[in-house]
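Check out a protein:
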Amino acid sequence: MRILTTMLVLAFSVLLVVSGCSESDAAAGLQGSVKVDDAKGQDTKVTYVFVNRSKETITVVGGARYTLERDHETYKAGSVPVKDYIDLHPGEIYSDSVTFADLPAGSYTITVEWDNIKAVAEFSRN
């Protein structure tokens, strides 16, 4: 009986480890990028794209957080409103954007975070 109990505990432990790996592999498959459209004298539009590069469907909450730094200090921070749970199938893309008006001259870094994945871009305004 003791051997059977030990085998069941071992089998359950292996199942938990395998399940966890599967989940982290799916989460690792989410990749992000940021594109900055910064026309001189115009608004600065930041478009971010997250792609499911895994072989499994990934479920995440829609919406993203962003931090805009100017000369290495936080200039603006916020989030895109949460839209609901989103299922991203393999190869599927989630994209959204945020626009900043009248940014003063300086060096900027925009960081967008969605489901613990970060995408970063740097740009300058003269």
Observations:
- The chain has one domain: 2-125.
- Confidence is low (pLDDT under 50) at residues 4-27.
- Residues 2-28 form the longest helix (27 residues).
